[in-house]
Write a structure and sequence with these properties.
With 225 residues, the chain is mainly alpha-helical. The protein is built from eleven helices and three strands. The protein has helices at 7-21, 33-40, 44-56, 78-99, 102-120, 124-141, 145-157, 159-168, 175-189, 193-217, 221-224; strands at 30-31, 60-62, 68-70. Strands 1-3-2 form a three-stranded antiparallel β-sheet. Strand 2 and strand 3 form a beta hairpin. The longest helix has 25 residues, at 193-217. 30% of the residues are buried.
């Protein structure tokens, strides 16, 4: 079947993006255009187009010799990232409590069921994906396109950090985090804006605290990231 124009670049981009965000391609990994072209069965042009887009996302760095590598995690700006993340957890959960429609609750509960299953199976990569889908469903219910776009970017940027976070629990996430999601759903359904705001903030802050503790215990964390 003839490949549609642009579909090769899109497939390469999406696959590499996911592998980078999930740490299958660790920070600092060299990127070989020839090998990627062979892997995906495309010419080097779609690969280069994908790498340009990944570079625009901040996930790939182009070196002076025109080779490329997976970008490192910006540990120097983690505090700013955490501040933005906590704020967006709060505001999207609060606005979802105010603006949600009945169908939004159904979508949120479906994503929660998927997250619960991933936790039970101790599948870290599935937990990262389903957790993101759960919170994005809440952000969609908030009915603010600008917040949704910002939150989506924050969640994408944080997937590599979340991989380390789940690893700190040896991929066996405590049940209380599943229960925190349930409490957030209940607050949203009840249209309790203050409680939704409070729960969203607490949920994000425990992630931040756990990662900060991990970084304190392991001084080599920034190098490994």
């Amino acid at each position: 079947m003839e490949r549609k124009r642009g579909s090769g670049s899109k497939h390469v981009y999406e696959t590499l993006r996911d592998e980078i965000l999930e740490l299958a391609l660790p920070p600092g990994s060299p990127i070989d255009e020839v090998r990627l072209a062979q892997r995906f069965g495309v010419s080097r042009t779609p690969v280069r187009e994908a790498l340009v887009k990944l570079a625009a996302d901040g996930l790939v760095e182009t070196l002076p010799n025109r080779s490329s590598m997976v970008s490192g995690v910006d540990t120097l700006n983690l505090r700013s990232f955490f501040d933005a993340l906590v704020l967006m957890y709060r505001v999207t959960t609060r606005l979802a409590a105010e603006h949600h429609e009945p169908e939004d609750l159904g979508a949120i509960r479906e994503r929660q069921a998927e997250f619960r299953q991933a936790v039970e199976q101790e599948d870290a990569l599935a937990m990262i994906a389903t957790n993101q889908a759960f919170h994005i469903a809440i952000a969609e219910a908030a009915r603010n396109a600008y917040f949704l776009a910002l939150f989506t970017k924050l969640m994408d940027d944080g997937r590599r950090i979340l991989r380390v976070y789940y690893g700190s629990y040896e991929d066996r996430l405590p049940q209380r985090f599943v229960e925190e999601h349930e409490a957030m759903i209940a607050a949203i359904e009840a249209r309790d804006l203050e409680e939704a705001d409070r729960l969203g903030g607490l949920h994000a802050e425990q992630i931040v605290e756990q990662i900060q503790k991990l970084m304190t215990r392991r001084s080599d964390l920034a190098i490994e990231l």
